[in-house]
């Protein structure tokens, strides 16, 4: 297991997101996307927070325990999704190592079912979602519930604006944009500032994580972000 893996939070200041504490209620609330279920989502997430983690068990055991508690609490709080058909069209529009992505029924959202195998606790989950939303608010994630993916893995269900693409972005556009917002290019598709390292920004033959919307804006829909402190 790579100690620099973002999800496990090794060697980083897990208590802070910029100037805010990761597990403060105000930060958690900013990650929630289903207004009618905010109280129940909040209760589920807070129930699974282990603070700095239980050092007596391994990270993989913490992650397994986290998934078990999430499923139990989500069902108790009414935010466990057994049937996705009211939410999605049923057409898979993307799939990666962590997420299965579907189009919402109204065609305006991408619904991501992201398995929790690589998260040790709620803090890791909230950290990832919060940092993404902080850096790329135009394609922010919202947590709308929990459920199983197609392989029966306990997952968080996220919504995100669905980006309609007329033409693909170029790597030069991505590189220039990242440099314009204060990131230094470290390698192909890898950028860093004093706080974060961002990767998976390469424009490839398929499954681009950076899209160009109809207005010509770059949309970073699913890049990989770790804190710079995790690299030391």
What gyration radius follows from the Cα positions, in whole Å? 17 Å
Task: Tell me how many strands there are.
Answer: 14
**What is the residue-averaged pLDDT?**
85
Distance between the termini: 16 Å
Shape: globular
Number of domains: 2
Briefly summarize what is shown:
The chain is of the alpha+beta class and 232 residues long. It has helices at 25-29, 38-47, 59-76, 122-135, 171-180; strands at residues 16-17, 20-21, 80-81, 88-95, 99-104, 109-115, 142-148, 154-161, 184-187, 190-192, 196-199, 210-212, 218-220, 224-227.
List keywords for this structure.
232 residues, alpha+beta, 2 domains, 14 strands, 27% strand, disordered N terminus
Describe the structure.
- There is one protein chain.
- Mean pLDDT is 85; it is low at 1-16.
- The chain folds into two domains: 6-81 and 114-153, no CATH class; 171-231, no CATH class.
- The protein has helices at residues 25-29, 38-47, 59-76, 122-135, 171-180, and strands at residues 16-17, 20-21, 80-81, 88-95, 99-104, 109-115, 142-148, 154-161, 184-187, 190-192, 196-199, 210-212, 218-220, 224-227.
- A hairpin with a 3-residue loop joins β4 and β5 (99-104).
- The longest helix is centred in the N-terminal third of the chain and has 18 residues, at 59-76.
- It starts with 15 loop residues before the first strand and ends in a 5-residue tail after the last strand.
- It has 232 residues and is of the alpha+beta class.
- A six-stranded mixed sheet has the order 3-7-8-6-5-4.
- α2 (38-47) packs antiparallel against α3.
């Amino acid at each position: 297991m790579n100690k620099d893996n973002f999800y496990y939070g090794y060697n980083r200041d897990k208590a802070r997101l910029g100037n805010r504490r990761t597990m403060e209620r105000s930060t958690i609330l900013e990650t929630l996307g289903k207004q009618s279920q905010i109280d129940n989502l909040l209760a589920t997430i807070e129930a699974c927070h282990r603070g700095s983690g239980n050092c007596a068990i391994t990270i993989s055991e913490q992650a397994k325990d986290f998934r078990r508690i999430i499923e139990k609490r989500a069902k108790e709080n009414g935010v466990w999704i057994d049937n996705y058909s009211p939410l999605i069209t049923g057409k898979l529009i993307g799939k990666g190592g962590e997420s299965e992505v579907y189009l919402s029924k109204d065609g305006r959202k991408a619904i991501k079912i992201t398995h929790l195998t690589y998260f040790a606790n709620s803090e890791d989950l909230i950290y990832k979602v919060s940092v993404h939303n902080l850096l790329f608010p135009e394609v922010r994630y919202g947590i709308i519930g929990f459920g199983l993916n197609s392989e029966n893995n306990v997952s968080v269900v996220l919504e995100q604006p669905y980006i309609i693409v007329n033409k693909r972005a170029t790597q030069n556009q991505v590189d220039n944009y990242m440099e314009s917002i204060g990131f230094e290019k470290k390698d192909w598709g890898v950028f860093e500032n004093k706080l974060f390292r961002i990767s998976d920004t390469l424009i490839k033959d398929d499954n681009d994580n950076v899209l160009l919307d109809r207005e010509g804006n770059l949309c970073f829909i699913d890049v990989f972000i770790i804190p710079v402190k995790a690299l030391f």
